Amino acid sequence: MSKIEEQSSGGNQGEIRYLTPLNIATVSKKKYCRFKRSGIKYVDYKDPDFLMSFINDQGKILPRRITGTSLKYQRKVSLAVKRARHLALLPYIGDLVKEE
Fold first, then answer.
1. What is the extent of the structural domain holding 71?
2. Which uninterrupted H or E stretch holds 65?
3. Domain contains 43
4. Which of 9, 17, 39, 85 has its CA 20 to 30 A from that of 2?
């Protein structure tokens, strides 16, 4: 094949083409650990309203990749949630726990 045939048949091989334009607005802001930012050292298991922000509607503990919490504080949050569940401050299983 000559250079002319390569350009007309394939075009730019390294170029990525999409059928629909990319939505740049879907890229979210960088997640941050709210404990490090606020300077919180202790996660209180006796505060169920605060712990509810780390639990989904079914009563499951939200993972770090969703909340942005660092590993150190995620361990403390999970321990606090488990203690609050044991003391019946939070439910183990909930159907629509966060009803408003």
1. 34-100
2. helix 64-67
3. yes
4. 17
- Which helix (H) or strand (E) segment holds residue 47: the answer is none
62 domain-assigned: yes
Structure tokens of 82?
């488990």
pTM: 0.67
Please return the burial class of 55, using the count of CB atoms within 10 Å of its CB with bins 0-12, 13-18 and 19+: buried
Q: What is the pLDDT along the chain (100 residues), one digit of tens a residue?
A: 555 555 555 556 677 776 766 565 555 577 889 999 999 999 999 999 999 999 998 889 999 999 999 999 999 999 999 999 999 999 988 776 666 5
CA nearest 89: which of 56, 54, 52, 35? 52
